[in-house]
Write a structure and sequence with these properties.
CATH superfamily of the largest domain: HAD superfamily/HAD-like
Structural class: alpha/beta
Order of helices and strands: EHHHHHEHEHEHEEH
Helix content: 40-55%
Radius of gyration: 17 Å
CATH class of the largest domain: Alpha Beta
Number of strands: 6
CATH topology of the largest domain: Rossmann fold
CATH architecture of the largest domain: 3-Layer(aba) Sandwich
Distance between the termini: 25 Å
Strand content: 5-15%
């Protein structure tokens, strides 16, 4: 399933903002699964819980607070730097460099940003492995956000203020529809990235985010082809 865009709908865009995990690299790479396992292990060690209980609590924290880190900080006052270092100590060789994606990003007119709930080190390592790190103007990570994760409105506003980003001239790419609600409200064009070969009907795409259908302008399971179509249409 690849919904190729009408390039004219992106002719006004001067700022291109990309989530990292399961967006700039594909869901099937399973990189985030490594982080997920490490987060469960962190909770298990912190609270001396059986693995199943630790995983259940981890998911509860994620759902209630937006990220596991945010929940652990609020409930248990953990050291965020230690958490971020430990959960991002993973094997990045699983990521396959994507020259088509890199070429498309380089040719997009304007500025390009990574906007992630992870930390800068993780974003840099992942983007470097993909061969696209040098194509971005900056990385806005969870530390730059004051440890307040997406989808908090204040985090998007902080990013927009820092980089003088205006909604109408910006497009946001995300793998979670709920993280596109604020960008849409700020006037941004929004693109939802779904797993490869994900073939539900349009209305089923938001199965896990049923309240956010109106916040998504485009859906694609192939970011490289989507961006390439924009570049070719504007050439």
């Amino acid at each position: 399933m690849t919904e190729l865009p009408d390039p004219t709908r992106f002719a006004h865009v001067t700022d291109w903002v990309f989530d990292l995990d399961n967006t700039l690299y594909p869901h099937h790479s399973n990189l985030f699964a490594q982080i997920d396992v490490r987060m469960t292990a962190y909770v298990q060690e912190l609270l001396t819980l059986p693995r199943d209980e630790a995983r259940k609590l981890q998911k509860e924290l994620y759902l209630e607070y937006g990220t596991t880190l945010n929940g652990l900080m609020k409930r248990y006052n953990i050291d965020p730097d230690d958490f971020l270092m430990r959960v991002h100590d993973i094997d990045y060789s699983w990521l396959v460099p994507d020259p088509v994606l890199g070429a498309a990003i380089r040719q997009l007119p304007g500025r390009k940003f990574i906007f992630t709930n992870g930390n800068r080190g993780h974003a840099e390592r992942a983007a470097r492995q993909l061969g696209i790190l040098e194509d971005f103007d900056d990385i806005f990570d969870i530390v730059a956000a004051g440890l307040t994760p997406k989808p908090a409105r204040q985090t998007y506003e902080k990013f927009a203020s820092l980089h003088a980003v205006t909604g109408h001239n910006t497009v946001m790419f995300e793998d979670l529809a709920r993280n596109l609600a604020v960008p849409k409200a700020l006037g941004m064009t929004t693109v939802l990235i779904v797993p490869r070969n994900f073939e539900p009907t349009f209305s089923e795409i938001w199965e896990s985010d049923p309240d956010n259908e109106d916040d998504v302008d485009f859906v694609t399971d192939d970011l490289a082809s989507f961006l390439s179509a924009i570049v070719e249409g504007q050439a």
